[in-house]
Amino acid sequence: MTADTGDTVSSRRRFLKLSALFTAAGALPLLQNFERAVAAEPDAPLRIGYLPITDATPLLVAHERGLYQAQGLKVERPRLFRSWAEIVEAFLSGQVNVVHMLSPMTVWARYGSKSPSKVVAWNHVCGSALAAAVRPNVAKLADIAGTTFAIPFWYSVHNVVLQHLLKHEGLTSIGSGKPGPKQVKLAVMAPSDMLPALAGGRISGYIVAEPFVALAEILRVGKVLRFTGDVWKDHACCVVQMHERDLNQRPQWTQKVVNAIVQAQAWTRTHRDDTARLLAKDAPGRYTPHGYPALAKVLAPPASDDAAYVKSGAIRHPEWHEHRIDFQPYPYPSYTETLVQMLKGTYVEGRNEFLAKLDPAFAARDLVDDRFVKQAIAAAGGMQAFGVPNGFTRTEQITT
User: Fold this and answer.
1) What is the rounded distance in angstroms from the CA atom of residue 108 to the CA atom of residue 115?
2) Within a 13 Å sphere around the CA of 109, how many CA atoms are in the beta-carbon half?
């Protein structure tokens, strides 16, 4: 199977563009634009950038339910982007000041681009899965050997988790050429390109944020091999990224932004079906291009789904009681440390020289600013309001 078609050529261009943005030289013009934008509008309103995936849920729920406005914030309508390259470019240049970003991308933004930005909260946990083509010869992960498999970006927890699983199967990952019998070729593709590529037989499967795996199931072109949250318990996928300038110079404004996002997460956890309807393409807000059935399969699935996934092997740890997607805002330091350590052993393309010297414990302290989310969590009722024990430490659980 090859993925060298129009959709992947376009995705390759976006990757090359984004890879350049994650270097100091490539990002410099955008960071200069940011400085000019800040000088011209030091009290800019809240401008949110997002991709049409369920990862963006808290940012959008907070807008639709007026939670930002209730905090006294002036907010513009969230701006939808079609690719990670677009959203990163808009953020670095100051066109938007709050985004959800794949957690490894924040590492490249701060230490590759030299962007003065920080993680202020997690946006969600879990929310991704591995989908494979509905074919008799693809029943388990080992069956994708010798094929092309799509990932949303090299700097993603999807790539980290996938390669962790492939190594367990004795498979190696490559980024170009024809894969051998013990290799899997990874192709970077935009989420919206993955489903047609799978349906057209150009890839054997993909790992991505929802609802693109749910859509493959509904359209009967793909099946779930594993849920990422069943491999790395309650892992972060997308996090909330903000400019360090706002954190330092507008701390009250920043606190209000984080308050609203945390309130939205708490509301979503107890209003899952309402959230699916709120995000659907025919809802008044028209935040996503997805229909209610696909969103509900992720946010409010029937209990029978879990039993079927346990039987198929997509869920191997039912004792974890993982939701397909869940919402918990605190950025545990242990996660960031583990992520950076795992990235060091994960095959990625693009510039990553800084990674070898990056100390995981330092990154956990330097990349994340948890001052605001701690206050917001306390105001929302504490960590138990998000289904986790009180306290700001945990032990990471990663399996195969």
Assistant:
1) 9
2) 33
Q: CA–CA distance from 176 to each of 67, 146, 164, 226, 353 (Å)?
A: 46, 12, 19, 25, 20
Taking a C-beta distance cutoff of 8 angstroms, is the pair 52, 280 a contact?
Answer: no
d(CA 81, CA 79): 7
Note the pLDDT tens digit of each residue in 327-381.
999 999 999 999 999 999 999 998 889 999 999 999 999 999 999 999 999 999 9
Beta bridge partners of 242: 98, 118
Rounded Cα–Cα distance for residues 360 and 316 (Å): 29
In the predicted structure, residue 3 carries a pLDDT above the cut 50: no
- HSE of 228 in the Cβ direction (CA atoms, 13 Å)? 30
- Residues whose CB is less than 8 angstroms from the CB of residue 318 and which lie 6 or more positions away in sequence, other chains included: 306, 310
Q: Other C-beta atoms within 10 Å of 119: how many?
A: 25
* Domains by residue range for the chain, with CATH: 11-124+236-289+325-386 (3.40.190.10), 127-234 (3.40.190.10)
DSSP for residue 78: P
Query: Which residues, including other chains, have CB under 8 Å from residue 371's CB and lie 6 or more apart?
Result: none
Q: Which residue from 2, 36, 30, 34 is spatially nearest to 18, judged by alpha carbons?
A: 30
What is the longest distance spanned by two Cα atoms in the chain?
A: 60
Query: Cα–Cα distance between 113 and 178 in angstroms, integer?
Result: 32
- DSSP notation for 105-171: HHHHHHHTS---EEEEEE--EE-EEEEEES-TT-SSGGGGTTSEEEES-SSSHHHHHHHHHHHHTT-
Q: What is the pLDDT of residues 190-217, one digit of tens each?
A: 888 999 999 999 999 999 999 999 999 9
pTM, to two decimals: 0.95
